[in-house]
Structure formats: C-alpha cells, structure tokens
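As the next step, I selected for study one protein, both as residues and as discrete backbone shape codes, as given directly below:
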Amino acid sequence: MPKPLRDPQPMLERTIAEWGGHEDLWLFGYGSLIWRPEFDFIERRPAWVRGWHRALKMWSRVNRGSVQTPGLVFGLLSGGSVRGMVFRVPAAQGLDTLRRLWLREMPTGVYDPKWLRCSTASGPVSALAFTLSRRSPNFTGELSDERYRHIFANAVGRYGSSLDYARQTLEELRRHAIHDVALARLVALAVPADTSAGHTASPAPADCDVVPPPVYVAGSSDKKSSQPSGPSGSPDKDQQ
C-alpha cells in the first residue's frame, strides 16, 4: 500500500459531522460505485451534477496498476457536468457505510470528499462525492492516446486491469442510458492492442451527444464549486 498522502481519519470525521446522522445519507457514484457499490441502499436515481466531470486521470498503483506500471481510475474533476447515480442509504446504516467507504476509497486520503447538489427527476439532493484536485500528485494531467494504449495493455492491480475497469464502467453507464463520449473514445483505443495480442474485440459503438435533463482534509481544491458542500447547504470546504 502506498504511503498515505494525507491522514484520512480527520476527513472522515468532518464528513460525518457535516452529514449529522439524522437524515438518510446520499452518495453520488460516477465510476465503479455505479456497478460495484458494496453497500446497501434503499433507493437509486439517475442524477446530473453541474460543475464537475468524470475523467480517467487518476493514477492507481494498487487496485488497477502497480508501482512499476501505474494504472488509471476515475476522478471527479472540476468543470463541465457529469451524469451518474445517487444512492440513498438509511440513516441507521449511514455511519457504517461511510466507514467502509473510507476503507475502499480513502486509504491514502487521495480524494476530496464534497457534498454536491445532484439534480434528479424527483428533485435535487445533496450527495457525498469523491472529487480529485488537479494539484494532487495522483492527478495524471493530460495523457496522449499512446500512453492510454500502453496503460490499457499493461497495467494490472489487485482488482484487475485498468482496461477492464474502464470497460465495465462504460458498459454500466450505457445500461443506465448514460452516454460518455470521451470514455467510449478511450476504450476504443485499446482495440488495436487487443487485436495484436490475438484477441477479438469489437469497437465500442459511437455514443451520441445527449443534452442532460435539467435537473474523499487540509488544503484547498483548485476550483471552487458553486454547489453547497453539506446537507445543510453550508459553503464548501475545499481540500487537496
């Protein structure tokens, strides 16, 4: 396990205090949480968040890669908009769910946990999301297509390869009628690598642009969000 970038415990304590424990806990999933939540929930809704976007631009040296060959996982970066899913966890299970989420998502304190305003067909909710700062050492910056191809062909961690992770996310997004054109393009880059390795792979079908419906602590992030940070709508506290 890499050395923690920050102590995750104070961030967990702050998040618990912001939630309060009196109401159900809402969580926003934009990557693997959609297809492998690993927690119980009583409701799930498609959701849209303004001011953030899903990006395969976070280094992974354990789960989807290694120290020698780092892989990639998703981060939620500021700017743009993103469609995903919100999950409602009963208040009685919220504390245990947060603690288990921290073991999964925050062992090294890499993410900036934030409460984001998520628009849904049944009205807006304030949900916890794991965002990534561009100042984080785990942020990749811009990567070339050739670098993505190399990572997809070689990076494997304890939970599998970076390519499988990207493909599973793309397939689950499509299952929920969420069309991520940028991710579809990246996954399609791996087709030549699969072919050269003797595998048969079908290129991902082209997604069409869809107009979205209206609708993981010290430090500060690179861009303030205009959305409230906590269930009470208090100003966001940036980090990393």
Summary: Helices lie at 8-19, 32-35, 91-105, 145-154, 162-175, 181-189, 191-196. The longest strand covers residues 71-89.
